[in-house]
Design brief:
The complex is a heterodimer of chains A (about 375) and B (about 80). With about 375 residues, chain A is α+β, with helices and mostly antiparallel strands. Chain A is about 50% helix and about 10% strand. Chain B has one domain (about 1-70). Classes of the chains: A alpha+beta (about 375), B mainly alpha (about 80).
């Protein structure tokens, strides 16, 4: 990547930044070299690269954005702290200072090969045998996402060396992931849901096309993947997954959207209408039949408060802004600047809980749903966070 | 509803807010998102903030934020 984009010294007023590149150039390069199918997808990949410390904004103020912002390559090498180390890395053991040309060169080869490995692995394991139900396509999606895991590339590379895999056509897996996202979004939006059969067909079609290409590898199913721990942080599929939000404009789900914008989290909104809430397609996403509901990678999230808590935790890990405050290489700081003091959190949550319980338990008939189901799923969603 | 808001909710919020910019002091926090949306509904749909100038000013500070305007486009 360092060889493909313009890396040079740039001047901003009186400050000179050495060996930096422009964020939108990197996005263009990722798309042109088919590491990503769209600029949006490239930004998600880039954000993961920032999160895992391979590139960094010159002031540490931003995660990767498709803008005229400047970034350095760090000299961090992928998999250095993971179990498997690829041969290219062991060859270049010299630990150079930051923004040294030789270190950036070795990084470029590593990141390129690893991005390819990411794609190839994702296609190999992509989807479980097809099924015609929506929930099955959700499962397929999550299983493929848990495998397309940027930070696990090093161990994957080691594994692929021992068991040779066919070289797939570039970008086909990503297309599958994207298409099943579309199917998922359709299920949530129910935009043209004249009949649920259409949706089933769409979801099944996405799953079927995916499983067709993966049928060869389906028989030799790979063991359940355990995410590696890098730098004290467990790598998950969520690092490169967009944050999906089901949202009724102007409703209480606006809180989540507002906070996501404040935290600069990449969010994909599925607009909803109140009459869609109790439809079976949406109940599969949120059994409470309410907004907001969210999905991040393989993690479903309900309840505004729980989603907001999750966003705060995720953003604290995600954004380069927060990492720059700590020393380089140290694990990210646990709290984001927007995290309220504990006192407020506890007191406000308690206040909210009292009103919540009084409404739900006393006026069960009025609201027309069982309090047991609601509270069970609510506490479950909090437990996930 | 009005009585409850004027006698219970507003005094508590005003006490927390005091003279500070945001509910936890000078810096914006996630609590402001949570409280702010409630106040937004109270103001725009129920008109409860007419007698609470301080809370109204606080709400307008929140509504001036770009993230708020992006999230609640067309609802202000």
């Amino acid at each position: 990547m360092a060889t493909g984009i313009s890396v040079k010294d740039r001047r901003y007023f009186l400050t000179v930044y050495n060996n930096c590149f422009v964020g939108s150039d990197a996005v263009t390069w990722l798309v042109q070299n088919t590491h990503a199918q769209s600029r949006k997808e490239a930004v998600l990949l880039g954000r993961a690269m920032v999160k895992w410390g391979f590139i960094r904004h010159v002031e540490g103020d931003h995660t990767l954005k498709d803008m005229t912002l400047w970034y350095h390559f760090t000299n961090k090498k992928l998999g250095a702290s993971a179990a498997g180390i690829s041969p290219t890395e062991t060859a270049s053991t010299a630990n150079n200072g930051s923004s040294n040309s030789s270190s950036t060169a070795s990084l470029s080869s590593i990141s390129t090969s690893n991005l390819n490995t990411l794609r190839s692995r994702a296609s190999m394991v992509s989807f479980a045998p097809s099924s015609s139900s929506n929930s099955a396509s959700l499962n397929n999606l999550s299983s493929s996402l848990s495998m397309s895991n940027l930070a696990s590339l090093a161990s994957m590379a080691a594994r692929s060396a021992s068991q040779p895999i066919q070289t797939p056509a570039r970008m086909t897996p990503s297309a599958e992931v994207v298409s099943s996202y579309r199917a998922l979004a359709q299920v949530g939006a129910m935009q043209q849901s004249k009949s649920t059969n259409d949706l089933h067909a769409a979801a099944a079609g996405a799953a079927a096309s995916a499983s067709a290409s993966a049928s060869a590898s389906a028989s030799t199913s790979t063991p359940r993947f355990v995410p590696p721990v890098i730098g004290g942080v467990t790598a998950t599929s969520r690092d490169i997954a967009p944050f999906l939000l089901w949202h009724i404009p102007g409703s209480r789900s606006s809180r989540v959207l507002w906070l996501a914008y404040e935290l600069d989290v990449a969010v994909e909104v599925t607009p909803m209408k109140p009459e869609h809430l109790k439809r079976p397609e949406y109940l599969a996403i949120n059994p409470n039949g309410s907004v907001p509901a969210a999905r991040h990678g393989d993690l479903p999230l309900w309840e505004g408060g729980a989603i907001m808590e999750y966003l705060l935790k995720f953003a604290a890990l995600d954004s380069a802004k927060f990492e720059s405050k700590s020393t380089p290489g140290a694990p990210p700081s646990p709290a984001s600047p927007l995290q309220p003091p504990e006192w407020t959190q506890v007191n406000w949550a308690r206040h909210q809980m009292y009103s919540y319980w009084s409404i739900v338990t006393l006026d069960e008939k009025l609201f027309g749903f069982g309090s047991s189901r609601l509270t069970n799923s609510t506490s479950a969603s909090y437990a996930l966070v | 509803m009005t009585t409850w808001f004027n006698h219970v909710v507003a005094p508590v919020l005003q006490q927390h807010l005091g003279d500070s910019e945001y509910i936890n002091g000078p810096n914006f926090t996630a609590t402001d998102v949570y409280v702010g949306f409630s106040l937004f509904v109270a103001e725009t749909q129920l008109g409860l903030l007419e007698t609470h100038k301080q809370l109204k000013a606080y709400l307008h500070r929140l509504m001036a934020r770009p993230a708020f305007q992006a999230a609640l486009k067309g609802w202000q």
